[in-house]
Amino acid sequence: MSTAAHKFQVGVFVILTSTFGVAALIWLGASRFFEKTQPFVTYFSESVQGLDTGSPVKYRGVPAGRVQAIRIAPDGELIEVTMDIDVASAAALKKDPSLRATLELSGITGLRYIEIDRHSGERLNQAPILTFKPPDEVIPSARSSVKAVQAALADVYDRFMQLDLGGISNDARATLQAANQLLRDERLDAVLSNVKTLSQSTGQLVKNLDAMTAGVQLGPAVAGATRVTDEAHALISDLHTGQTGTQLREAIEQITRLALNAQDVLVSLRATTERLNRSAGSLQSLTEQVRGQPSLLLFSEPPPRRPDDGPRQ
Predict the structure, then answer these.
(1) Does residue 23 belong to any structural domain of this protein?
(2) CA nearest 285: which of 274, 270, 296?
(3) By the 8 A CB rule, do 99 and 61 touch?
(4) Residue 206 has what pLDDT?
(5) Range of the domain at 144
(6) CA distance linking residue 257 with residue 250, whole number of Å
(7) Quick check: 116 and 57 in contact, CB under 8 A?
């Protein structure tokens, strides 16, 4: 009797639990149909693998709706994703030119969701150009972070493939062979020995210099050099702006004037010398004539008569 009652209780519990579970599922499913939403659409130029109908749509990390449909766009190239956004979130999404929709990974499962956020700079120019009229208000898309990583990896791969790996390998092999030959060269030991000897000689030279300068006091010499430098600096400054400099400039000006006067005197002396030379030449010519004809001193002809002279007596 107790066994039959126990079975009845278990049966009633299972039936009630199943009924409540089915009712909860129906209520949860029906609530989505009665929820007020607004459709938005976005277009992706990349693969939407991992994005399914019903996937979450988030606005700056906050749940804002779900993916309603995924289909190929009318141009046959882009992927059209229709989103049902709740009314409260839709008010924030309208007429904001900085909003962009991106595909993001949900953990490590490979599933994706749509993240809507504000962007700036280059990402605002990544939205595909539409050649058709969309059915609902459009939220432009941007390249997803996964796509950006893939593009960067592809660029790195392309740059790596452009490298002259054969040439680099040949250069490295030639370098290794040259290094190996250098290490095997018998003269290397002699060079190392000379370097060691030079190092020892340099150390001994430093010790000798230390011993030679051990008793030398460099302080007074440095102080004297500093004093001489200061005096030279003061002298130069005085020559530029002081009384000594003024006197020196006046003396230079006087010397310049004397030089100019001496130059004028030299010019005068040169002219006088030339006249004396001409006079000496005339005197020499007269002396030669008198030596040849001494009578010219007594019987020389009188000078020619001038027109204004009177008659001779």
Answers:
(1) no
(2) 296
(3) no
(4) 78
(5) 33-153
(6) 11
(7) yes
Residue 117 contacts residue 60 (beta carbons within 8 Å): yes
The pLDDT tens digits of the residues spanning 159-207 come to: 777 777 777 877 777 787 777 776 677 776 777 778 888 888 888 887 7
Interatomic CA distance for residues 125 and 43, integer angstroms: 14
Is 43 within 8 Å of 79 (Cβ atoms)?
Answer: yes
Contacts of 57 (CB under 8 A, 6+ apart): 63, 64, 65, 66, 67, 83, 84, 85, 113, 114, 116
Least Cα distance to 113 among 72, 150, 59 occurs for 59
CA–CA gap between residue 306 and residue 227 (Å, rounded): 88
Last residue of a domain, one of 107, 131, 153: 153
State the DSSP code for 251: H
CA distances from 6 to 13, 17, 20 (A): 11, 17, 21
Separation CA 265–CA 262 (nearest Å)? 5
pLDDT tens per residue across span 244-297: 667 667 777 777 777 777 777 777 777 777 777 777 677 667 666 766 666 655
Please give the share of the chain, as a percent, with pLDDT higher than 90: 19
Does 171 map to a domain?
Answer: no
- What lies within 8 Å, CB to CB, of 143 at 6+ separation is 46, 102, 123, 126, 151
Helix axes 243-292, 218-241, angle to 10 degrees: 70
Environment class of 108 (CB within 10 Å of its CB; exposed 0-12, middle 13-18, buried 19+): exposed
Q: pLDDT band at residue 77, thresholds of 50, 70 and 90?
A: very high
Which residue, chain included where needed, has tokens 């030959």?
Answer: 181
Same domain as 124, residue 39: yes
pTM: 0.43
- Residue 168 C-beta-side C-alpha neighbours within 13 Å: 6
| Residue 273 lies inside a defined structural domain of this protein | no
79: Cα separation from own chain's centroid: 42
